[in-house]
Amino acid sequence: MDCTQNLSLGDPLEPVRKATAQMLHERDHSFSLPQPFYNDERLFQVDMQEIFHKEWLIAGMTSEIPTKGNFLTVQIGDNPIIVIRGAEGQIHAFHNVCRHRGSRLCVSDKGKVAKLVCPYHQWTYELDGRLLFAGTEMGEGFKLSDYNLKPVNCKTAGGFIFISLAENPPAIDEFLSTLAHYMEPYDMENTKVAVQSVMREQANWKLVIENNRECYHCNGSHPELLNTLLEWDDVTDPRASQAFKDQVAECTTRWDKDNIPYAHASFGLRNRIVRMPLLKGTVSMTMDGKQGSKKLMGRITDPDLGSMRILHLPHSWNHCMGDHLINFTVWPISAQESVVITKWLVHKDAVEGVDYDVARLREVWDATNDQDRRLGEENQRGINSTAYQPGPYSKTYEFGVINFLDWYSERMLNNLDDTPAQTLRQVAGE
Q1: What's the first-to-final CA gap in the chain, in angstroms?
Q2: What would the pLDDT profile of 71-98 be if each residue is shown by its tens digit?
Q3: Fewest beta carbons within 10 Å, which of 12, 125, 181, 380?
């Protein structure tokens, strides 16, 4: 028995957890959050415990670890994680922590190994996490089977790798089944990451997501993006023009003929998939709206597929076009710092310099990400002021932000074991 697990030192965050629940009970769901949610380091620790340690996160893409022994690593707060492809193509996830004295096993972002060998004392693990070798120094009574790597929940669908640190993570299989269906035309196993960027943003992770969930700011901030992007997510959007509705009808007729999924599919407020056209006359998110890669993905023959938008809370959004896919993930670092990782994926046989130019492929979203970074950082600086108080969201232009914070509030309350059976609207007394 590990007595250290039962050592009662009290929970220094318990008062913060109670205050967090109280603030969520009392907040107006059409207003931004109280200041501590954006800048308090103690509340940030609660965020990590109750959201990022319990929800499903996108660790990467299956094509990043194409063969046996390929691995990638991610960091979730203080938790280093390794995701590795084992025998018969199965993908596993483990805590990237040696069971000997706790050293990290894999210290690089990506790589390929025959076995997992700790660089400290050479304890050796099979790709499925079993301890194979610890040396004779451990004594006769030592059992290898007692010290296998600690597993992490791992599921794959449509080329995405999902992991959760929770013992009992929330149900996700229905969404994953739908995601696999919508991603089928792209044949994601036969893609590759053409390039990726890692951007540090001096802003709370929720501000990064809030900024993504609305295009209220787009006209004033994103000229490159608006060369191709139409901001509406559905023809039911009250702001959608008749011209947009007519364009959607024209596109969906073509997509139906090619058996390309497009209908809006939502799974609560956490997940959403929908295919929407790009600006008429454009087919890809490039500066000129033309293909970023000459080689289309999977079985796709028509480059004009618009953008299939995939939302996965708490931390990812995606744009899937006929020629390439862009995956974004947000990783919290501290109460006022986040990392945004952007990956551009193309067909695995596309040749750099022939089929695509990296600089051209990433130009639009490099500019957009940097513009969003500046917006988020200025947002954070203002929120840190003693003058800040929650402000009202537009129910038409910022409904996506309201939806995100409704989801966040419900998951926090549920995970805090406060009022798991109630919805946010019930909590608010509406």
Answers
A1: 48
A2: 999 999 999 999 999 998 999 999 999 9
A3: 12
